User: What shape does this take?
Amino acid sequence: MFRNRISFAALFAILLFTAIHAQPQQVASVVHTRYTISSTALGEDRTILVRVPTGYERSTQRFPVVVMLDAHPPQNAVMASIIEDQANAGRMPEMILVGIQNTDRTRDLTPTKTERENTGGGDKFLDFIQNEVLPFVEKNYRTQPYRVFAGHSLGGLTVVYTMISRPDLFNGYIAASPVLHWDKNFPINKSAEVFKTRKDWKKTLFIALGNEPDYDAGFNLYKDLLKKADLKDFSYEFQHWMDEDHGSIVHRAYLAGMRKIFEGWQPQIPVTGVAALEDHYAKLTKRFGYEIKPPEDIVNQVGYALLRTNKLAEAVDAFERNVKFYPDSANVYDSLAEAHEKSGSKSKAIANYEKAYKMAQQKGEEQLAITAKANFDRLSSK
Assistant: This one.
């Protein structure tokens, strides 16, 4: 059961309110929405925070999902900023971030019961994620069938345990300073058993450790295990950073983990044409298991590069493909109109400027609406 949806601004989130606009505008994607879930699996109310990419409401695009444990400040802001920054740089896709806040961390993030008080609730917690959190997110948000799981310390232990106990739940895993020595190396021994029978994985795992001597043995044992396991289509990386400690490692580990999972996402520069872009993203589609289109801004960059060198037919083709990729974007029609105008196709330029400014007006994109309308009026009056 889900209740009490309210707006929540995570630490450092910025919202601008002006006297001109009646509605607030989201200008930083660290803004989250908080939900309370009455969990059947856990028998208590739990809080999750959901962050969507800036402009999510104005698009129909679907996004992969990252689930992050320990979603209390500054963790949620850290992961949101990493996603936004790296997606903006073209190194990974924008993602929907789902942060799970804690009630009893030790209970939920340990897979076995030990002499330590209140441990061993890990499987119930994973039931909560699998049967309550993910279905809720997929019902209420536009998601793609690719998921990443990230956690720190006992959260890192949970990430590794999830991979070997419920391997179909996530595709990519990031474990910062995981407690791999938990309960006499339980996650390592359990992994060894699983790896004997399951060889085909198609997963990516990133594990990082700082200057944490108590964690070294488990870290090295797990690294050696994976070297010997001979798993098919399993990509992994271990990093041991002696200039980090248990408290400082999270940001660096999450950034490096995302870079590992989405390694090769960015096309090689310079891009030779739209056909090369389509080939690159077709390969990513096959690798990640969902349709990945060439980004609108990159296709536009290719189109304008062709326009500047007077390759007019090729430029028109590039912008027409962008219209095909993103038919709900006012900007693609404005760019296509510009190419048609330079090519001497006045009627096509007018038609696309008109579509651009009308669509921009509907979406509240004021500056684009003004410039496209001005170009429409200019050409129409001739």
Remarks:
- The chain has two domains: 2-261, 274-380.
